[in-house]
Structures are given as structure tokens and as C-alpha cells.
């Protein structure tokens, strides 16, 4: 060390945003644990084969759409278009709720086909599908609540320099649960 | 800038160079001592909660050592404190298993994870990297209160009628998955799993914060390679926790479904005496073991790495020499963190694991010896020809190195899948992990407490009591666990209630008694330490200099009793690494001293 080298300014990302990325890493590990358990169990002879309920296909479309509206709402708030932002965030929340509803209907569908997901008659194949999907739904629910909170907080708000930050973090999270569902959907259909 | 933004997240305008003296933060008793967002207060909360658990968990080991040492004797005082769990002064088998289980859970998670890394990550990260607080002080506060809630739930499980969970700290199904399997599998297990779920949340909230803080909030000039090794160790600890606790959590979720919703992830073909055949089919308990040990092994390093970091720092300061091989220390921490994820199946050699797969895990496990040996070598060469100051913190740090060597060597035995057939689930394993992980990390924790107590409370601990504490604990630790190696080699299994009825293990009765007596003495000395700790907080000798150990790191540039925000005025800037001891004949050069024109180049 001959001279005083100032450390390079690593301030390009806000710490709170960074926390979200690390948290996503943690969530990835949880679902990786579950899906790898799924793969291990899949090789058993008692594994039940069945098709995914059709509702899951619709819900996939819905959550992809919600990611687009989320992206647009983040862009709106960055551009200072507050009313557009409010509309878009509300639409995203509604799409989120629709997604949850679709998943619920999907479970109903499986039940009506006499595939038990819990209880004494259940097969691990259906149980896994239920537990993993249910956990993902909880993550979406958390996102929906955060969306509603942001929508309420946007009322009568004046734009300051930093007010897009929470929305950006929420956007990252929302895109993550979207990608996570697409992964799970592909996994159920082709990998698992 | 981000530092200021974090402290004043809710206070609108922030000016990057505002003066942060504490009159800024007029706070009530509640927000100062209870729901505090100051990392230093949260650290103390973690520490003292951890101490309470250490006393409880340690006392549990005293109780079951009484059973092992004196299987035929009756102690009426046991009935006084344990009631029906020790009818006639004799611990019942159920109580014995419950004590062993709770002792393990509490010591591993509540004391050595929350109490150790919770305390020192919180206390040291902002102070040593030059930050005002954590990336998210609020999440940090939540982290403690989730831990507190986990503690309350775990504590309450001790008092339920059917007793706390008693199937071992690993909570393998079916004992953990079927309420009818044993008394401890009933509500005790429900509380256990709720408590552990809360604990996982606490660890994650903490870990996220530690990582974000270390990577984003270092002061000007504090490049990653100028960080003290404590911070590097705490960083890898947090990474391990953030990546492995979620996997444990997924294992717990499946367990909850098996327990409460009749699924069969872990259960198959089970017949319970008095209940009948269970309907569960197709599950496998081995799956749980995989998910558990994918956390369980990194957990060992979550416990050990903070101790390693603190020991590196304390050894260097008190040898008045730079740490030997700074980059090698970081590299070996990194290697350990990677390998930690690749060795979990060595806990499962005798589960019917494919021997070929087993041999891969043997190789990966034995590879850990390489970074471990690098670290030991560097600690010893740091001590070599040092101008050693035998402070209590230094003694515990040297004790750590000793224990890490002794316990690490038996790890090479256990890492062999062939030897493991004989040694698995014997006292050899108990001796190994207690020395290398349990006692060694406790030593790291003690070293940390003795070293940073002046910074925490602005007081000194009493040295005489500290030396008594050290020598008795050091000698006691070896006297307790060394003989267990012989017992384990002779095949004596762990977790057994009474060895006196076994022809092959009767011979160890005297040895068991000896271990019990030493355990009692060592436990008593820990009480002495607690007395020293709490007495010194109030009545200890006051710290009068900012830098009592003549150390280089940033925490010693803060006021003796720093307020929330740590430094009045601006955060100091850093110009050098943390280990310029004895450079160019100067005893120590703090990190805040600019590099002089005629200073030599090498570290």
C-alpha cells in the first residue's frame, strides 16, 4: 500500500434493495429444497401420475400479465405520473388476487377428480403439489398485501426523490414470485 | 449517504454530513432498552438472552449428567425442582430424553447461533466497518424479537404436561411426526416446531441485514480487503445462514403437514404400540434427514466461523503482530463456506446411503481439513515470536485454537464412512462435536465478551475471576470430553439412559462419575463468570481510555460509550488494513491513520 487508495464507492445499490435480493436468494433456497425433495420422491413406485388442473395454465397467464402491469407502474412512478401509478398498482393487486383465486380453483378441480392432497388417502405427488403451490401462494399473498399498502400510501402523496424506492423493491419481489411460479409450472409439467 | 438514509429513514430530509450526536435521539425507556433499533443494544439483548439460555441449557446437562454419573442414587432435590419428572429423586427416562433434546436444541440454536453471531454480528459489524447502524435497523429489531418469541415458546414447552420434545435435537421423524409415538411427541413437539420456525425467521432477518450492511455500508476507504477478519467471518456466517436455514424451513413445513394434515412425506408403514397401524404410505424419513442436514452441517460453521473471526482478531491484537496470512484466512473461510454445503451426507453414512456416494462425501469432508489446517497454521504463526499479552480474551482465544485442533483431528476419523460404521452414534461423536463446535465456540464467545466488554459497557471485567474462569473451564472441558473418546471407541452409544445394566459398559461407571463431577465444577465456574459479567456492568472499573487494548480497528475510535449513530460528527475514514501492529517499529497504527510518506510498503 503505497498510496491511500479510496475504496471504490459501492453505493450504486440502495441497501434496502440489496436486502431484497439477498432475501430472494433465501427464498430460492427454500423452493430449491422442496423441489429437490420432490425429485427424490418422484422415483418411488407409489408416485401418482396426474395432469395439472387447467386453472394453473390460466393463472400462469394472469401472473405474467401482473408482472407487466407492475413493471409499468414502477415506470410510471419514476416518471412522476402518480395517477397512472395508482391505477396500475391497483390492477396489479387485482391480478394478484385473481391468481390466488385461480390456484384455489385448481385445487378444487383436483379434489373433484378425487385426488387427495392431504389426509390419510393422500399421495405424496399431490401433497407435494399442494404444499409447494400453497407456499408460493403465501408469497403472492404477501406481495398483494404490500401492493395494497403502497396503493393506500400513494393517496395524497407528493413525489420526492426517493419515493419510488419502496415500489422498486416491491417490483423486484413481485417479478420474483412471478418467475418463481413460472419455474414451478415448468417443473411440475416437464422436470418433476 | 446510505448510512444517513438508513438511520433517518422516516425523518424526511437528510443531509449527508449532518452531526449525529445523541441529543438527536431523545428516546423513552421503551425505545432505548426494549424495542431498540440501535445495533449495540440489540447485541446486548441477544447476548443476555443467550446467557439465560446457556444457564438453562447448561443446567439441563448437569441434570442428565447426574443420571449418567449416579444411575442408582436418589437425589430428593431433583424431585423438588422437576416434580413428577424425577419421582423419588430419580430422573425418569422420558425426562432424560427431553433434557438431552432440549439441551441440544437450545445450545446449538439459541446460545451458539443467536447468542454468538447475533451478539457479535450486531455489535461489531457497524462499529468495525464504520457504519452508523445496520442496513435496516427495524428488521434488526424484528430479528431479536422473533428470537425472543422463539425463546418464550421453547421455554413454555418445558412446562406442558406431556413434557418438551424428546426425540433428539435433530427431530427425526417418526418421533417428531407422530404425536402418538412418545409423550414428548405431543404438544411439546408442536411448541418445538413453532419455536424453531420463529427462530429461522429471526436468523434470516438478521442474516439479510448483516450481508447488506457489510457489502453496502462500509465507510470511505474500507475496501473489502481492509476489513478485520471478524467481519469476514461474520459475513460468511450470514451467507451460510441465509442459504441453509430456508432449506431447514422447507423440511419443517413438510413435517408440519405430516404431523397435522395426514400427508406422508416422511412416514411409511408404521405401527405404533397401543394405537395400531398408521395409514401413511410411501414416505421416507431419510428425506427429512437430507433436508435437516443440509442446514445441519452449515449450522456447524454458522456456530464456528464467528468464533474463528474473533479469535483471529484477538490473537493479532494481543500478539502485537499482524495476523499471519490475511488473504489465506479469507480464502480458507471462503473454502469452508463452500464445503459446508457439500458434506451434509456424512451425517448419514449409516442410513443405507449408496457407498459410492458416501465415498464422495468422505472426500469432500476430508477436504475441510485443508482450510482448517491453514487457519490453525496462521493462528500459530501469528502467536510465533509475538509480544503476547495474556489478557483473559487472549487466553480464551488461545484455548479456542487448542480445542479446535483437538476436536478437528477427531473429525478426520469421523469423516471416514468406514470408521463411521463403528463410531456412529457413540460417545466418540459426542466428544468430537462438543469439543470442536460446542466448547470451542463457547471459548470464542468468551474471548469476544472479555475483549469487547469495555466497548459494550464502558467497564472492565474483573481479571482475577476471569483467569479462574479460564483455567477451570479449559481444564474441565478436556477432562469432560477427552474420556468420552475412549468410551465411544469402546462402542458406548450416545443418548442411553443407564449404562450400568450393560455388561460391556459397566466398566465406565467410575469414568462417568468423574465426568459428572467435573461437569458440576465447570458449570459452577460459569456462574462465577456470570457474576463477574453482571457485577462489572454496574460496579466494574471504568474504562478511561478510548482504546484500552491499543487496537487498530474502528470501534476503538468511537467514544467510550457511543450513542446511537456510533460516532459524533463524521464517520472516520480508513487508510489501511486492520493489522498494522509492530510495523516499522511502531507498536500499532489505527486504520484511521493516513499512510505516511516514508512508511514501508508491505503489510
Can you walk me through this structure?
- The complex is a heterodimer of chains A (192) and B (603).
- Chain A has helices at residues 15-42, 55-78, 82-112, 124-153, 165-191.
- Chain A has a single domain (53-191), classed as Four Helix Bundle (Hemerythrin (Met), subunit A), CATH 1.20.120.80.
- Chain A has 192 residues and is mostly helical.
- By secondary structure, chain B is an all-alpha fold.
- Chain B has a single domain (35-588), classed as Up-down Bundle (Cytochrome C Oxidase, Chain A).
- Chain B has helices at 2-7, 29-34, 39-69, 76-82, 93-129, 137-157, 187-216, 229-260, 285-319, 326-340, 355-367, 369-383, 392-414, 417-423, 427-457, 463-489, 509-539; strands spanning 271-272, 276-277, 581-583, 586-588.
- Chain B is globular.
- The interface between A and B is large, with 46 and 59 residues.
Question: How much helical structure, as a percent, in the residues of chain A?
Answer: over 70%
CATH topology of chain A: Four Helix Bundle (Hemerythrin (Met), subunit A)
Structural class of chain B: mainly alpha
What average pLDDT do the residues of chain B reach? 92
For the termini of chain A, the CA-CA separation is 54 Å
The succession of helices and strands of chain B, N to C, reads HHHHHHHHEEHHHHHHHHHEE
Q: Residue share in helices of chain B?
A: 55-70%
- Any guess at the CATH architecture of chain A? Up-down Bundle
Amino acid at each position: 500500500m503505497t498510496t491511500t487508495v479510496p475504496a471504490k464507492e459501492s453505493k450504486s445499490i440502495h441497501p434496502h434493495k440489496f436486502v431484497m435480493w439477498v432475501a430472494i436468494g433465501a427464498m430460492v433456497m427454500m423452493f430449491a429444497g422442496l423441489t429437490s425433495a420432490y425429485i427424490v420422491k418422484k422415483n418411488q413406485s407409489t408416485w401418482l401420475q396426474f395432469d395439472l388442473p387447467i386453472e394453473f395454465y390460466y393463472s400462469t397467464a394472469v401472473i405474467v400479465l401482473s408482472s407487466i402491469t407492475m413493471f409499468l407502474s414502477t415506470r410510471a412512478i419514476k416518471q412522476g405520473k402518480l395517477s397512472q401509478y395508482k391505477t396500475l398498482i391497483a390492477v396489479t393487486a387485482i391480478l394478484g388476487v385473481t391468481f390466488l383465486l385461480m390456484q384455489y380453483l385448481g385445487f378444487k378441480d383436483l379434489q373433484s377428480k378425487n385426488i387427495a392432497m392431504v389426509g390419510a388417502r393422500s399421495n405424496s405427488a399431490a401433497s407435494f403439489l399442494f404444499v409447494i403451490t400453497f407456499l408460493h401462494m403465501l408469497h403472492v399473498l404477501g406481495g398483494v398485501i404490500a401492493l395494497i399498502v403502497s396503493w393506500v400510501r400513494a393517496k395524497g402523496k407528493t413525489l420526492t426523490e426517493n419515493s419510488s424506492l419502496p415500489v422498486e423493491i416491491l417490483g423486484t419481489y413481485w417479478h420474483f414470485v412471478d418467475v418463481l411460479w413460472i419455474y414451478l409450472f415448468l417443473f411440475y409439467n416437464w422436470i418433476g | 449517504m446510505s448510512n444517513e438514509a438508513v438511520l433517518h429513514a422516516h425523518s424526511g430530509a437528510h443531509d449527508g454530513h449532518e452531526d449525529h450526536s445523541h441529543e438527536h435521539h431523545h428516546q423513552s425507556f421503551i425505545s432505548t432498552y426494549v424495542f431498540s433499533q440501535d445495533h449495540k443494544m440489540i447485541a446486548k439483548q441477544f447476548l443476555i438472552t443467550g446467557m439465560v439460555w446457556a444457564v438453562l441449557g447448561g443446567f439441563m446437562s448437569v441434570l442428565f449428567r447426574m443420571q449418567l454419573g449416579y444411575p442408582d442414587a436418589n437425589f430428593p432435590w431433583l424431585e423438588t425442582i422437576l416434580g413428577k419428572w424425577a419421582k423419588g429423586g430419580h430422573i425418569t427416562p422420558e425426562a432424560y430424553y427431553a433434557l438431552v433434546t432440549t439441551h441440544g436444541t437450545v445450545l446449538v440454536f439459541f446460545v451458539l447461533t443467536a447468542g454468538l453471531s447475533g451478539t457479535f454480528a450486531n455489535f461489531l459489524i457497524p462499529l468495525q466497518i464504520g457504519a452508523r447502524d445496520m442496513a435496516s435497523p427495524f428488521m434488526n429489531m424484528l430479528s431479536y424479537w422473533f428470537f425472543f418469541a422463539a425463546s418464550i415458546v421453547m421455554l413454555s414447552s418445558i412446562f406442558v404436561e406431556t413434557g418438551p420434545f424428546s426425540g433428539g435435537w435433530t427431530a427425526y421423524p417418526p418421533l417428531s411426526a407422530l404425536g402418538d409415538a412418545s409423550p414428548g411427541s405431543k404438544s411439546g413437539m408442536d411448541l418445538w416446531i413453532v419455536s424453531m420456525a420463529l427462530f429461522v425467521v429471526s436468523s434470516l432477518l438478521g442474516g439479510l441485514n448483516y450481508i447488506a450492511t457489510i457489502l453496502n455500508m462500509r465507510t470511505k476507504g474500507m475496501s473489502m480487503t481492509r476489513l478485520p477478519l471478524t467481519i469476514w467471518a461474520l459475513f460468511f456466517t450470514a451467507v451460510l445462514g441465509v442459504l441453509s436455514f430456508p432449506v431447514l424451513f422447507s423440511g419443517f413445513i413438510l413435517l408440519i403437514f405430516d404431523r397435522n394434515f395426514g400427508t406422508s412425506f416422511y412416514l411409511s408403514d408404521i405401527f405404533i404400540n397401543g394405537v395400531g397401524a398408521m395409514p401413511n404410505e410411501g414416505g421416507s424419513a431419510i428425506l427429512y434427514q437430507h433436508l435437516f442436514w443440509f442446514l445441519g452441517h452449515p449450522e456447524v460453521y454458522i456456530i464456528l466461523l464467528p468464533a474463528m473471526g474473533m479469535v483471529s482478531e484477538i490473537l493479532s491484537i494481543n500478539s502485537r503482530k499482524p495476523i499471519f496470512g490475511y488473504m489465506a484466512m479469507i480464502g480458507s473461510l471462503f473454502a469452508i463456506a463452500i464445503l459446508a454445503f457439500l458434506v451434509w451426507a456424512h451425517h448419514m453414512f449409516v442410513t443405507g446411503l449408496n457407498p459410492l456416494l458416501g465415498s464422495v462425501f468422505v472426500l469432500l469432508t476430508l477436504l475441510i481439513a485443508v482450510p482448517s489446517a491453514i487457519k490453525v497454521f496462521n493462528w500459530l504463526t501469528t502467536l510465533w515470536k509475538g509480544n503476547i499479552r495474556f489478557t483473559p480474551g487472549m487466553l480464551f482465544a488461545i484455548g479456542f485454537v487448542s480445542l479446535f485442533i483437538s476436536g478437528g483431528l477427531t473429525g478426520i476419523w469421523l469423516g471416514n464412512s468406514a470408521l463411521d460404521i463403528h463410531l456412529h452414534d457413540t460417545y466418540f461423536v459426542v466428544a468430537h462435536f462438543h469439543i470442536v463446535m460446542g466448547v470451542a465456540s463457547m471459548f470464542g464467545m468468551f474471548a469476544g465478551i472479555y475483549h469487547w466488554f469495555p466497548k459494550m459497557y464502558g467497564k472492565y471485567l474483573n481479571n482475577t475471576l476471569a483467569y479462574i474462569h479460564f483455567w477451570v473451564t479449559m481444564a474441565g472441558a478436556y477432562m469432560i470430553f477427552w474420556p468420552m473418546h475412549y468410551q465411544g471407541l469402546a462402542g458406548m452409544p450416545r443418548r442411553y439412559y443407564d449404562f450400568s445394566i450393560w455388561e460391556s459398559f459397566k466398566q465406565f461407571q467410575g469414568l462417568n462419575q468423574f465426568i459428572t463431577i467435573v461437569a458440576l465444577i465447570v458449570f459452577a465456574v460459569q456462574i462465577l463468570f456470570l457474576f463477574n459479567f453482571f457485577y462489572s456492568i454496574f460496579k466494574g472499573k471504568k474504562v478511561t481510555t478510548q482504546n484500552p487494548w491499543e487496537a487498530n480497528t474502528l470501534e476503538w475510535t468511537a467514544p467510550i460509550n457511543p450513542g446511537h449513530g456510533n460516532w459524533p460528527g463524521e464517520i472516520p475514514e480508513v487508510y489501511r488494513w486492520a493489522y498494522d501492529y509492530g510495523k516499522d517499529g511502531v507498536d500499532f497504527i489505527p486504520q484511521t491513520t493516513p499512510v505516511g510518506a516514508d512508511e514501508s510498503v508491505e503489510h
